[in-house]
Design a protein that fits this description.
This protein is mostly helical. The protein is built from seven helices and no strands. It has helices at residues 4-20, 42-72, 76-102, 111-128, 130-155, 161-183, 191-208. The radius of gyration is 17 Å and the shape is globular.
Length: 211
């Protein structure tokens, strides 16, 4: 059985890997099988880069949230579910990073800040809320991310088939994660909590679009 020290070391390792190591996806990027897109203008390339940077930040935060919730919960089954979700989100982290490189763009300069903030929120949810609240937090997070990705599908340049394929697959995965948490017994969060989560997400996405 893993001790608290083991879990702390695993969380620290996950943090360092997310922020400083090249992510490795278990699945091939959806961009690889996307139909050839049109040549992007400088303006379209800049827009795609900004949107994919925001998506990359979202995946950095997802790693932090899941890692912290797994650390905070005392329920082994819930910890396994959260760890499995974090591993799947690693694909998204790798895909968005790879696409940013292809676009000649960069990740957010504030990634350590985003990670720390999301980790704190996830740890609080895991420690104070109980299993149903923690799963409800996953549901709300994934539903908000799903809506956010849908908006990006509307904003991405029509010719950027690679980015669009990545975002479409991410959206499908996030919906599946939310459904899994719902079926596992997650309960709806109070309206004030949902509102605070939306506000925090708005601050993050607005800032990460530029920085």
């Amino acid at each position: 059985m893993r001790t608290l020290t083991d879990h702390l070391l695993a969380a620290a390792d996950g943090s360092l890997r997310t922020l400083f190591a090249p992510p490795r996806a278990a699945r091939p990027s959806p961009a690889a099988s996307a139909p050839p897109g049109a040549a992007l203008s400088a303006e379209d390339r800049k827009l795609s880069g900004a949107l994919m940077r925001v998506n990359h930040v979202g995946e950095v935060c997802a790693q932090a949230l899941y890692t912290a919730q797994a650390l905070g919960t005392a329920d082994p089954a819930l910890r396994r579910q959260l760890d499995a979700a974090a591993r799947e989100e690693t694909d998204h982290l790798a895909w968005t990073r790879e696409r940013l490189d292809e676009l000649g763009d960069r990740v957010s300069l504030l990634n350590p800040l985003w990670y720390a903030g999301a980790f704190g929120i996830g740890l609080l949810a895991g420690r104070l809320g109980g299993e149903r609240f923690s799963l409800g937090f996953v549901i709300e997070t994934e539903r908000q991310v799903e809506a956010h990705l849908a908006s990006h599908m509307d904003r991405l340049p029509a010719g950027d088939s690679a980015s669009r394929a990545i975002v479409a697959q991410m959206k499908e995965d996030e919906a599946r994660h939310a459904d899994a948490a719902l079926h596992a017994g997650g309960s709806p969060l109070p309206a004030p909590v949902r509102g605070l989560m939306r506000l925090a997400a708005r601050v993050m996405t607005t800032t990460a679009h530029r920085v």
